Amino acid sequence: MTRPHHHGEPHAHPAARRVRARIRTGTGTRTRTRPPTPFALAAPALLAIAFLLMPLLGILARTEWAELGSHLSSEGVTEAVKLSLLVSFCALELSLVLGVPLAWLLARVSFPGKALVRSLVLLPMVLPPTVGGVALLLGFGRRGLLGPWLEETFGIVLPFHTSGAVVAATFVAMPFLVISLEGTLAGLRPAYEETAASLGAGPLRVFCTVTLPLVAPGLAAGAALTWARALGEFGATITFAGNLPGATQTLPLQVYLLLQEQPEAATSVSLLLLAIAMAVLVGLRGRWAGTGRSRATPTPLLDEIAPPPGTPDPAGTKGISNTGGSPADGTTANGTGAGVSTTGDTSSPTGAAGPTGTGEPSGPGGVGGGWPLHARVTGFTELTLDAEPGTTVAVVGPNGAGKTTLLRALLGLTPRAHAELLLGELPVGSLPSHRRGVAWVPQDGALFPHLTALANTAYGLRAQGVRRTEARRQAQAWLTRLGVGHLAHRRPGQLSGGQAGRVALARALAGRPRLLLLDEPLAALDQTTRAQVRHTLRGHLAGFGGVCLLVTHDPVEAVSLADRVLVLEDGRAVQDAPPTEVTRHPRSPWVARMLGRNALAGTAATDGTLALDAGGSLVVADPVGEGTAVLAVIAPEAVALHRRRPHGSPRNVWPGTVREITAVGSRLRVLVTSANGPDLVAEITTEAAAELRLADGAEVFTSVKATEITLVER
Ligand SMILES: Nc1ncnc2c1ncn2[C@@H]1O[C@H](COP(=O)(O)OP(=O)(O)OP(=O)(O)O)[C@@H](O)[C@H]1O
């Protein structure tokens, strides 16, 4: 073998060996040769490391280890330690109280001057702390802007008081918390919070039960860093709060003092602060600035099979993950509440109780007790939609047609379209999303990763004020009904995609919505599984008493699950009809093709033929009025293929080339493109294909009988 080998060459240059990186891959470890590091970069980089290391080594070298104990236990130092702990923890608390809402504001709310506010947050990080101290004096000092008012109204004098040290430490340390948390919040998938709102949770509840637990690891990292920074604060403290033993003389100030009187003791205290700072940094391992790290990997919805090996951990358990958060149970907040309210409530989705009034999962025909839908949507998507209770409407259309925009408009989650929405007698279009009673199951389910399947399912009921035990009982019943009752205590990360999908559906239905929005519930499934799950889903939808809108790209799903198919194109409804009607008379080339039909757009000509928009003409059996714009729909089975030009009755015949052959069950679909005629898909038997010796690139003729062409007015 002549290939140069990389392992263990006896004569390889050591430097060359050094620059080889071992790369871990899914299948093992392989070596790759990196370009050598330029000396001009490596040398100053090493110098920088030495520069940073030297002072630390200095402390270690000069520490009198034998005296360390006595230095650290001296009265002044222990007093300073206590004070430092008090000040740093108070500063952390204040930073949390003020900084968490500020981070949320920066991450979630658009307002003018946001960039300026962000700069203001960052300012204490770059400002010399002594300048910060001066600024604090001028703001909160006795002769500052706010100082006299604080003193007169509350009797608070910050300088020379421990509270002053807390203010100084908060001023310099809080930015670390805000920046860290803002990054984590910005990386959180909005689907979790949006789904929580669609289940009836108000913004504060969503923040406390979904947002905070999901960003807990990022928050903890930011808090640790903030605390460490507050503990080490010196410049602003001494300038603003003074150096008063027992009141404001914290550890860093003590170090400064000791340096003049007792340098060895100063070294010992410095070592203590250094050890604490190092411990915090090692504990965080660079996690604090982790923008976007708290993303949980979405799980495919309604997938019956386990995710394939190598699928990223759905719980997002690596790095700063969502699962590391405190297990805030979505069912613990909120007190007694309204329970299941019934009539007259125009603002709460709890009006949608089941006919039994118990909110118990009911059999087919009864979850919502019947909520007809009337929606008038304006904006990017423009349409009017009316549907009787229990109707499932499949929303189909090409990419970018406005399907998601329609769903988000009905949820009140997009400024791009507005929906006047009437559910039963209730106008909900002007209500915030959590008060509409519109449940949404996004494509990946968006189960809250920090809650069990049971708590996920109970979430909507709890948000609507149902008591904890009752909510859990109903949630368990829903899970059981959807065949996942035995998985109630598992977290989403421990569920297969299909199981997670069922839980997501149970969660949406348990919240007793008046309108159910499903976004491609079967998209992630393989064909066989899809058929099984479609059957199950049909059963569950039959039991839903509201209207269900189901976005799909799958024609079989649209036709088999829905009572109506709404075809969207460019934000407009081009057809809204029962599946049989859409299949027989598709009103747009796109939907015809989606349903496996050939669709040729054209205009009726004087001689009874059809002038095709793409060029050429078509002989039809039943001509329509001259000038009428129509769509000629041709089933693939009606397209015949020939090796030689067919003779005989007047037929539509075009020469073409075979471009693609795909198997559909036991038959073959053949795409034939033509320079002088339309591109057509023909469906033929495998025997016929063999007889014609069809292969990619084969020259053939396509023919269509005039009687096989259905004309649909456009
Ligand atoms: N936030 C946004 N700002 C501006 N344009 C947007 C925004 N979201 C979507 N669009 C645009 O609006 C149109 C409709 O988008 P929408 O997501 O509703 O389509 P869709 O039918 O759901 O498509 P797909 O099948 O690809 O999911 C697209 O042209 C899209 O580029």
UniProtKB/TrEMBL annotation:
Organism: Streptomyces smyrnaeus
Domain ABC transporter residue range list: 365-595
Keyword Membrane on entry: yes
Residue ranges annotated for the Mop domain, each copy included: 647-713
Chain positions covered by the region annotation Disordered: 292-374
Entries under Gene3D superfamilies matching the protein: 2.40.50.100, MetI-like, P-loop containing nucleotide triphosphate hydrolases
Subcellular location field: Cell membrane; Membrane
Residue stretches of biased makeup (Gly residues): 354-371
Gene it is expressed from: modB
Biased composition (Low complexity): 328-353
TM helices/strands, residue ranges: 39-61, 81-107, 119-140, 160-185, 206-228
Family: Belongs to the binding-protein-dependent transport system permease family.
Protein's name according to its UniProt entry: Molybdate ABC transporter permease subunit
